[in-house]
Structure formats: structure tokens, C-alpha cells
Specification:
This protein is α/β, with parallel strands linked by helices. The protein has helices spanning 3-18, 39-53, 68-93, 104-119, 121-137, 145-151, 153-169, 175-187; strands at 190-191, 196-197, 202-204, 210-211, 216-217, 222-224, 228-230, 251-252, 257-258, 263-265, 269-270, 275-276, 281-282, 291-292. The protein contains eight helices and 14 strands.
Length: 297
């Protein structure tokens, strides 16, 4: 191809890609002075959160009992500033206000939300400590809780999820989903930030697990790899569009075990103490203390 033909091809392609009809619904106009949420910065936020919640396991490897207060202080201060920036970007990205440019009030809202999340970190750590115990007690191969914190994908995933869930409860847009998708990419575990999960929760191995947005999970629940807690077909409105915001995922009671590759669909209730065997397909309620497994001949 000659240089002239190449330049003509490139110019024609740019014209097509720049045609408004070609990117309808795919283009987000950028407002000057308002940065978009950054995946790279959110990755740093995740590492700060892990260092704060599990000091000595993540972050500065030289931290000790004498320097702990200092290191956590430094990390919390940086977390506050980075999280405030990202929340502000998320608010502007989702067109929090109708003005052409996000005003200074958005910045104040972002700083308040960031401080509220940080205020909840001690409670988040307390719940995560129960998840560590559940993972350790649920795996005979685990030699220590230190191994669980350092190595197990479920702890990394739950750190992201439990922080993201609190941000979602605070009404922060976009950022919670980005945090859980970072964990999804890292571990293969997909938990929507709006799902409600109790204490002492664990997923053995983890890869391929999906937990939907309106799922409710009680305490002392153990799930194995490949489990889906999902929805059935979506109800449509009069124009044929899916109806948003309705409960469509399972309610899982306390002390439930769901084995590998089981699929639980719809707004059904799995009672306390139930066991769902591997590869099962469940679309109806299960009474408490029921076992559902494949029948053998």
C-alpha cells in the first residue's frame, strides 16, 4: 500500500470512528477539571486497605508493634486523600448534579463520604477476622491463619467486597463496583457490592463463584468453587426492558454449605443448616436442615 493510500485509509477510518452515530451510548464526554475514576489509583487504594486491615501481611514489611501506629496513620491519611479524589470523580462521572461542571459541593460530599468509610474500617476488620477464622476452620490444608491471610483468594476478595459494600451503603456510585471487579479480575470470584453477606463466610478455592446483587447470605456459610447464586429470567416492563431494582437472587440462611458447581437461582430461600451437593440445580425453596444431592443408583 502506498503512503497516499495508507493516509487515506487512516483518515477514512478516523472519520468513521468519530461519527456520532458510531459511538452512540459508548462515549462519555469529559468535563474539564473533572478526572475520571482511575483503575490504577483504585488498585493503590486496595493495597492501602489491605495494609491497614492486615498490617504486617500487606504493605510495609518492616512494620512492628512499635511502628504500627505510625504506619497505619500514614496509610490512613493517604487512603483518605486518594479515596476522596476517586469518590469525587465517581460522583461527577455519574452526573451527580445537572450543572455542566461539578461544583465545590461535590468535593465536600466526597471528603465526607471518604471519612465515613474510614470510620467504618474497625468494624470491617472485625468482620474480616471472622472470615479468616471460617477459612482456616473450613480447610484442613490450612496450617495457620497467617497462611489464610497471606495466600487465600477469598480474603483478598472479601476485603474488597466488604469495603465496597460499605461504600455502596453510603451511596457512593461506581467505585464499589470497580473495587469488586478488581477482586474479580484478581481471584476469579465475582461478588456484587450490593449483596449482603454475614459473618464467618468463606469460599473454598473460589474460582468461578458468582454472587448476585440482591443476594442475602447469613452467618457461617461455606461455598465451594464454581457456585452461582444468580437470577432466573428478568421481568420486563411495558417497553420490553428489564425491570431494575427488584429482589431476584437467593436468600441463604445460616450454617449453609453449597458444594462445587451448584447453581441456585431466583428469589428463593435456602433454610438454615441446609446442604446443597455438587453440580445441583436449585430453583425452589429448601426447608431448614434439608440436604439436596444427586441420587445414585
Amino acid at each position: 500500500m502506498s503512503d497516499n493510500n495508507l493516509m487515506q485509509t487512516l483518515a477514512t477510518t478516523v472519520d468513521k470512528l468519530s461519527n456520532p452515530q458510531s459511538f452512540k451510548g459508548l462515549f462519555h464526554p469529559h468535563r474539564d477539571g473533572n478526572p475520571l475514576p482511575s483503575g490504577k489509583i483504585l488498585e493503590e487504594i486496595v493495597m492501602l486497605l489491605r495494609a491497614i486491615l492486615f498490617p504486617g501481611y500487606y504493605g510495609n514489611s518492616s512494620v512492628n508493634i512499635h511502628t504500627l501506629h505510625y504506619h497505619i496513620g500514614v496509610d490512613v491519611e493517604r487512603l483518605y486523600h486518594l479515596l476522596s479524589q476517586q469518590i469525587q470523580a465517581g460522583l461527577c462521572f455519574m452526573e451527580y448534579n445537572a450543572d455542566d461542571k461539578c461544583n465545590c459541593n461535590i468535593k465536600q460530599v466526597a471528603h465526607k463520604l471518604s471519612s465515613q468509610l474510614i470510620e467504618r474500617l474497625p468494624a470491617i476488620r472485625e468482620v474480616l477476622s471472622t472470615d479468616v477464622i471460617a477459612a482456616f476452620n473450613g480447610d484442613p490444608a490450612a496450617e495457620s491463619t497467617s497462611e489464610v491471610i497471606s495466600c487465600y483468594p477469598i480474603i483478598k476478595t472479601l476485603t474488597n467486597y466488604r469495603v465496597a459494600h460499605e461504600l455502596a451503603l453510603l451511596g457512593v456510585p461506581l467505585i464499589p463496583r470497580m473495587l469488586t471487579e478488581l477482586a474479580h479480575s484478581e481471584t476469579g470470584i465475582d461478588i456484587h457490592p450490593n449483596a449482603r453477606i454475614g459473618k464467618y463466610f468463606t469460599i473454598d478455592h473460589g474460582t468461578g463463584v458468582v454472587i448476585g446483587a440482591t443476594c442475602v447470605i447469613g452467618d457461617n456459610v461455606k461455598i465451594y468453587q464454581g457456585v452461582t447464586l444468580g437470577a432466573k429470567s428478568f421481568p420486563l416492563d411495558s417497553e420490553g426492558n428489564p425491570i431494575k431494582g427488584i429482589p431476584r437472587h437467593p436468600i441463604i440462611g445460616n450454617n449453609v454449605i453449597i458444594y462445587a458447581n451448584a447453581t441456585v437461582l431466583g428469589r428463593i430461600t435456602i433454610g438454615n443448616g441446609c446442604v446443597i451437593g455438587a453440580n445441583m440445580w436449585v430453583t425452589e425453596d429448601m426447608q431448614a436442615d434439608t440436604i439436596k444431592r444427586c441420587e445414585t443408583t
